[in-house]
């Protein structure tokens, strides 16, 4: 742990501001609370919202896991994990099961989350209606009146044009039957894991200066139509490393002759399955 | 002579205290214990909440019975003390002389987060039957028993819920213990036999 920083980098008045916003966020599930996002020692777009939320909640006894697209060993994940090891001296882990706080970019782990765990999502664009209505004053009004017809229309236009809803990630959800929310760019595959999860879900958007939350055991419904129900992605082959048939797979190009393989995007899940197999053998 | 004290370990006590508040508000009806704080007239948990969340950007309103805490709050939290209820981010009051929920800042339909949090001191908190809570953060229902709160509170709470997404969030405090009532939570009185009649 390096000296010269306050615990977890941020100063105490900033943490208090973030903490007040976080408490209002859990009290109004899915609603975007504005907060005074700070400059961080890395650019907006690199997870500054998630980092500020993590800094505001982190304590000495926490064990932090950071994933980027499911992987613990990519640049963004390694840097953020090192950042908190350095500025807060907290224990870090690669294991989903052992972590108390999991900061994530674009995935929810395959290992089921437990009661008491906190997920922190890095969010690029928090407003689900932004591409349908560019004015913040107008989207605020739409949320105030739960006027979400435009989003249903967008999904309907997908159905009319392609015969199915084509949104593959950041698929819009309705939280506790009231607020329309962007789940951050997680694949559609992860949406069902949000519904009634035993873990607390916190979302931070640094550039856009918004925080929102889903408390544990809260209904999170992916928008759909009776005759075009919400579905998740599936693959016609299992993971090439661990053989999992029920996890989200990344396509890896292996050569320049069209060779490819599909492996788990969640590295911890894949490695644990491999270890278990080795032990059994 | 200034009475009372602040957090022994300001950074980590505030963090521990905040995580407890995050827990009780994200899982309504659960009860947490906050760090022991010595503040004139304020119960320990109310004082810990004040130190954790109020500052120059989050003004507080103190019930006259907590007037002795004003100087302590100004010194240890740097929070302005307001006399107009509607200007307060945090309102501290004992259940016996509590303000109506509708008298506090409710937020705006477009910005419902600009609403007050009421810190209400009660006689005792436990998870015995009394109120049955349900809503976001609760897997099914959770029992919460609150001693020393007026029967009108439930009607007041019902109206508060009807204003959703506007509305007030409540932290119930007894000694060093705290429970949370975010504006989403539904409260039903539990009738035990026929003697404990909760009707008004």
Automatic annotation (TrEMBL), chain A:
Entry keyword Glycoprotein: no
InterPro entries named in the record: PhnJ
UniProt KW keywords: 4Fe-4S, Iron, Iron-sulfur, Lyase, Metal-binding, S-adenosyl-L-methionine
Catalysed reactions listed for this entry: alpha-D-ribose 1-methylphosphonate 5-phosphate + AH2 + S-adenosyl-L-methionine = alpha-D-ribose 1,2-cyclic phosphate 5-phosphate + methane + 5'-deoxyadenosine + L-methionine + A + H(+)
GO terms of biological process kind: organic phosphonate catabolic process
Primary enzyme class: lyase
EC number(s) stated in the UniProt entry for this protein: 4.7.1.1
GO molecular function, one term: metal ion binding
Family: Belongs to the PhnJ family.
Function in brief: Catalyzes the breakage of the C-P bond in alpha-D-ribose 1-methylphosphonate 5-phosphate (PRPn) forming alpha-D-ribose.
UniProt name for this protein: Alpha-D-ribose 1-methylphosphonate 5-phosphate C-P lyase
Organism listed in the record: Roseiterribacter gracilis
UniProtKB/TrEMBL annotation, chain B:
Parts forming coiled coils: none
Keywords carried by this UniProt record: Lyase
GO BP field: organic phosphonate metabolic process
Transcription regulation listed as a keyword: no
Keyword Lyase in record: yes
InterPro entries, per database record: PhnH-like_sp, Phosphonate_metab_PhnH
SUPFAM superfamilies assigned: PhnH-like
One term of GO molecular function: lyase activity
One family name in Pfam for this protein: PhnH
Descriptive protein name: Carbon-phosphorus lyase subunit PhnH
Organism, scientific name: Roseiterribacter gracilis
Species classification: Bacteria, Pseudomonadati, Pseudomonadota, Alphaproteobacteria, Rhodospirillales
């Amino acid at each position: 742990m390096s000296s010269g920083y306050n615990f977890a980098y941020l100063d105490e008045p900033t943490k208090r501001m973030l903490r007040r916003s976080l408490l209002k966020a859990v009290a109004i599930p899915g609603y975007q609370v504005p907060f005074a996002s700070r400059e961080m020692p890395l650019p907006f777009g690199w997870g500054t919202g998630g980092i500020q939320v993590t800094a505001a909640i982190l304590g000495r006894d926490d064990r932090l896991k950071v994933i980027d697209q499911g992987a613990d060993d990519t640049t963004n994940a390694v840097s953020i994990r090192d950042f908190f090891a350095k500025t807060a001296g907290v224990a870090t882990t690669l294991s989903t099961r052992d972590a108390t706080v999991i900061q994530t970019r674009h995935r929810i782990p395959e290992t089921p989350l437990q009661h008491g765990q906190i997920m922190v999502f890095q969010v690029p664009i928090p407003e689900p209606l932004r591409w349908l209505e560019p004015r913040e004053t107008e989207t605020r009004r739409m949320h105030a009146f739960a006027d979400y017809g435009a989003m249903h229309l967008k999904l309907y236009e997908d159905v009319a044009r392609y015969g199915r809803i084509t949104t593959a990630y950041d698929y819009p959800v309705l939280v506790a039957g009231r607020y329309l929310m962007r789940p951050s760019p997680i694949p559609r595959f992860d949406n069902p894991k949000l519904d009634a999860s035993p873990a607390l879900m916190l979302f931070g958007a640094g550039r856009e200066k918004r925080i929102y939350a889903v408390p544990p055991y809260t209904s999170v419904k992916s928008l759909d139509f009776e005759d075009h129900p919400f579905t998740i992605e599936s693959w016609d082959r299992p993971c090439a490393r661990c053989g999992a048939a029920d996890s989200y797979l990344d396509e890896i190009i292996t050569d320049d002759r069209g060779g490819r393989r599909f492996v788990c995007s969640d590295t911890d899940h894949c490695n644990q399955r491999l270890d278990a197999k080795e032990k059994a053998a | 002579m200034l009475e009372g004290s602040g957090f022994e370990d300001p950074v980590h006590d505030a963090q521990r205290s905040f995580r407890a508040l995050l827990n009780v508000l994200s899982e309504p009806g659960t009860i947490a214990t906050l760090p022991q704080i010595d503040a004139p007239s304020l119960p320990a948990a109310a004082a810990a909440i004040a130190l954790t969340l109020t500052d120059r950007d989050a003004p507080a309103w103190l019930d006259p019975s907590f007037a002795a805490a004003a100087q302590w709050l100004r010194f240890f939290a740097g929070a302005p003390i307001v006399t107009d209820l509607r200007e307060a981010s945090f309102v501290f009051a004992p259940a016996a002389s509590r303000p109506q929920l509708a008298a506090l800042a409710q937020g705006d339909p477009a910005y419902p987060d600009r609403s007050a949090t009421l810190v209400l001191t009660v006689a005792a908190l436990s998870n015995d039957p009394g109120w049955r809570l349900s809503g976001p953060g609760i897997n099914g229902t959770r029992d919460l028993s609150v001693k020393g709160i007026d029967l009108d509170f439930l009607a007041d709470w019902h109206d508060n819920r009807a204003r959703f997404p506007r509305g007030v969030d409540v932290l119930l405090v007894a000694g060093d213990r705290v429970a949370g009532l975010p504006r989403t939570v539904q409260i039903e009185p539990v009738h035990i036999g026929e003697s404990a009649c909760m009707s008004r």
